[in-house]
């Protein structure tokens, strides 16, 4: 391994990126334009048929039979809700902050009492014992915050036995998180945007390697005393630098557009490190494409084999996909990057929280493995 | 980068030693039992039509591909066993115009100078001298994408020789060049020979071989069919030039298959 060679090759790769308009656009300008377009105009997300994970903490203190248990059964009858009960609020809130459930519903101590008072005097609100069901929502999921409250409200209204939702009710639904802070669409999109930019490295790497093969440059480099280690390390370093610049540009862009998560510097540093690790997998995917592509134009087309799943299953668009697609998303590294960033930026999770550490572990192991497979495959079929 | 004489015990002055070289690509035999010895300081021409096996022999000698059978040594080092030592000795100008279009001419040259671990002063001096010799000084700081085809070929030659190799493989260095550029390259090659470099030149231009080479080997269908100085071959076959030698030996013109 020789620093002089690696530095020369890295410098060459950077100049190549900067001086080729197509590469410059794809790597730097396209993500910025995309971030701007989505951030400025993304009004809503379409949906499939997701299943929402709801945690329920039953604080009802009435003597059995409790009406709250019947209410929980009513919720369980709804196909798109998966109800899990918790013994205490702290455990449920912890699950929510880790992204394992999308809402926590707290049934108050006076739930049965309130319902009983309503049934005795349904037309006399002055005799009701009022109560509030609290609903804490996953602030990292735009779909959860928009879809879950109306579903719960509808079930509650039907359970109480009111025919019109506009009528006063003895039991109100209090959606706590939405009252604390109005989260913008950009907040939901930002974690995916960080992930999104680096995905196009797949195409750039695949094109670069196939072009160098086509025009004889790879042969020329192989004839020189450059070792495979010199060459591959210089390439990886080049693309890490490019990924870092991309992440900085995307961050500046979303910041200018109003993304201001309440997190410390360490979270930003962690986010950049995560994106850099993720970019290794994109270099690996690019090498796999370069291995199977006969020409640079073929490489461009074949790159979409990896670009599209990473994009649609693993970044912000994935939030609106069906549950099947979300399960499929767990097989692409970008999913874990977006999940970790969402936990950190939106759910208030810390760097050391289990969900973030698990995401980091999955990203690190899978990305290094993909890079290794890419290098081995390319080295086997096209000597470096 | 001198050849270590002690490394050549059985071939005191051989820069290249090839013995019964065979290379098959699936069912196609590209090189078919070629044996050859090229002396240090010799300018040797490998002649033959496209597809004759010239470039395959060069690629084997550079370590780019492995032979199916046979052995070869460059500068006394076995190509299969001591490829890194071979790489230090050789410079290769490939048949394709292998240059980075988005880099300037000088940047292309500097890149490869650094790959050969040249120090900065040496690199700058060699680069200036070679650009001057090849008539590209004024174009050194232009991006290569704007060069003409002939200029790119000359730049490719500069890149292959920037580290002052002892043995140069020039694979069709003047193909597609205008006459003026071709004669400039011929002068440059002659100058290399004067400096004691060993040069292996592949070409299908017979006049180029006659003008430059000490000896030539004529390759056809992967076989070495004749070997000697241009004058010897012409005299031996009783013809007026190398083109006629080729016709006499193979029954066809060398450029018919181009």
Walk me through what this model shows.
The complex is a heterodimer of chains A (384) and B (258). Chain A has helices at residues 3-19, 21-41, 67-76, 89-97, 111-120, 142-160, 176-180, 185-199, 201-214, 217-223, 228-256, 265-292, 296-302, 304-314, 323-329, 333-345, 354-381; strands at 52-58, 81-86, 103-107, 131-137, 171-175. Chain A is α/β, with parallel strands linked by helices and 384 residues long. In chain A, strands 2-1-3-4-5 form a five-stranded mixed sheet, with helices on both faces. Mean pLDDT of chain A is 84; it is low at 43-48. Chain A is elongated and about 90 Å long. In chain B, helix 3 (105-115) crosses helix 4, helix 3 (105-115) runs parallel beside helix 5 and helix 8 crosses helix 9 (242-250). The longest helix of chain B has 16 residues, at 179-194. In chain B, a hairpin with a 2-residue loop joins strand 4 and strand 5. Chain B is α/β, with parallel strands linked by helices and 258 residues long. Chain B starts with 13 loop residues before the first strand and ends in an 8-residue tail after the last helix. Chain B has one domain (5-257): Rossmann fold (3-Layer(aba) Sandwich).
Please sum up the structure shown.
The complex is a heterodimer of chains A (384) and B (258). With 384 residues, chain A is an alpha/beta fold. In chain A, 65% of the residues lie in helices and 8% in strands.
State the share of residues found in helices of chain A, binned by percent. 55-70%
Coarse morphology of chain A? elongated
Q: Give the SSE string of chain A.
A: HHEHEHEHEHEHHHHHHHHHHH
Number of strands of chain A: 5
For the terminal residues of chain A, how far apart are their CA atoms? 14 Å
The chain-level structural class of chain B is alpha/beta
Sheet having the most strands of chain A: 5 strands, mixed
Shape of chain B: globular
Average pLDDT figure of chain A: 84
Main sheet properties of chain B:
6 strands, mixed
User: Would you identify the CATH H-level superfamily of chain B?
Assistant: P-loop containing nucleotide triphosphate hydrolases
How far is it from the N-terminal to the C-terminal residue of chain B, by CA? Answer: 36 Å
Q: Give the strand order, joined by hyphens, for the main sheet of chain A.
A: 2-1-3-4-5
| Count of DSSP-assigned helices of chain B | 9
- Class from secondary-structure proportions of chain A: alpha/beta
Question: Can you give the mean pLDDT of chain B?
Answer: 89
Quantity of strands of chain B, as a count: 10
């Amino acid at each position: 391994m020789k620093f002089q060679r690696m530095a020369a090759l890295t410098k060459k790769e950077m100049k190549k990126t900067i001086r080729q308009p197509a590469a410059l656009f794809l790597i730097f300008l396209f993500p910025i334009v995309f971030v701007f377009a989505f951030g400025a105009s993304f009004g809503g997300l379409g949906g499939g048929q997701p299943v929402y994970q709801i945690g329920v903490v039953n604080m009802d203190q009435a003597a059995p039979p409790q009406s709250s248990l019947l209410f929980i059964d009513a919720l369980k009858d709804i196909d798109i809700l998966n109800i899990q009960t918790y013994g205490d609020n702290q455990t449920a809130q912890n699950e929510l902050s880790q992204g394992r459930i999308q809402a926590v519903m707290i049934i108050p101590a006076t739930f049965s009492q309130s319902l009983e008072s309503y049934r005795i005097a349904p037309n006399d609100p002055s005799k009701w014992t009022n109560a509030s069901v609290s609903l804490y929502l996953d602030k990292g999921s735009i779909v959860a915050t928009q879809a879950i409250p109306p579903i719960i409200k509808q079930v509650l209204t039907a359970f109480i036995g009111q025919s019109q939702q506009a009528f006063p009710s003895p039991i109100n639904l209090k959606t706590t998180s939405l009252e604390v802070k109005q989260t913008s669409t950009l907040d939901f999109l930002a974690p995916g945007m960080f992930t999104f930019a680096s995905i196009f490295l797949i195409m750039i790497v695949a094109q670069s390697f196939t072009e160098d093969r086509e025009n004889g440059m790879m042969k020329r480099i192989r004839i020189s005393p450059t070792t495979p280690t010199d060459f591959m390390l210089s390439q990886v370093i080049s693309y890490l630098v490019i990924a870092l610049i991309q992440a900085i540009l995307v961050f500046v862009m979303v910041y200018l557009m109003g993304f201001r998560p309440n997190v410390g510097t360490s979270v930003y540093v962690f986010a950049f490190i995560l994106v850099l690790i993720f970019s290794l997998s994109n270099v690996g995917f690019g090498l796999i494409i370069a291995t199977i592509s006969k020409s640079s134009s073929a490489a461009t087309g074949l790159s979409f084999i990896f670009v599209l799943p990473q994009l649609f299953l693993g970044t912000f668009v994935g939030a609106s996909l069906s549950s099947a697609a979300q399960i499929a998303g767990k097989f692409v590294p970008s999913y874990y990057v977006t999940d970790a960033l969402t936990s950190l930026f939106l759910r208030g999770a810390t760097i050391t929280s289990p969900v973030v550490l698990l995401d980091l572990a999955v990203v690190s192991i899978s990305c290094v493995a993909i890079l290794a497979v890419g290098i081995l495959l390319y080295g086997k079929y096209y000597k470096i | 980068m001198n050849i270590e004489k002690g490394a050549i015990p059985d071939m005191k002055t051989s820069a290249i030693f090839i013995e019964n070289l065979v290379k098959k690509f699936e069912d196609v035999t590209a090189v078919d039992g070629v044996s050859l010895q090229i002396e240090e300081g010799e300018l040797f021409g490998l002649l033959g039509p496209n597809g004759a096996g010239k470039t395959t022999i060069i690629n084997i000698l550079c370590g780019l591909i492995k032979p199916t059978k046979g052995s070869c040594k460059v500068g006394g080092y076995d190509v299969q066993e001591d490829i890194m030592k071979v790489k230090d000795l050789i410079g290769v100008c490939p048949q394709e115009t292998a240059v980075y279009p988005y880099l300037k001419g000088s940047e292309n040259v500097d890149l490869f100078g650094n790959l050969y671990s040249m120090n900065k002063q040496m690199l700058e001096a060699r680069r200036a001298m070679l650009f001057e010799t090849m008539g590209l000084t004024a174009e050194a700081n232009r991006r290569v994408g704007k060069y003409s085809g002939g200029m790119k070929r000359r730049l490719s030659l500069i890149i292959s020789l920037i580290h002052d190799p002892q043995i140069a493989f020039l694979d069709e260095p003047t193909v597609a060049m205008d006459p003026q550029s071709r004669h400039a390259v011929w002068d440059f090659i002659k100058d290399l020979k004067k400096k004691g470099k060993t040069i292996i030149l592949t070409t299908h231009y017979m006049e180029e071989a006659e003008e430059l080479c000490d000896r030539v080997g004529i390759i056809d269908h992967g076989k070495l069919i004749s070997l000697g100085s241009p004058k010897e071959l012409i005299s031996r076959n009783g013809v007026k030039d190398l083109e006629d030698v080729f016709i006499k030996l193979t029954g066809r013109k060398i450029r018919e298959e181009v």
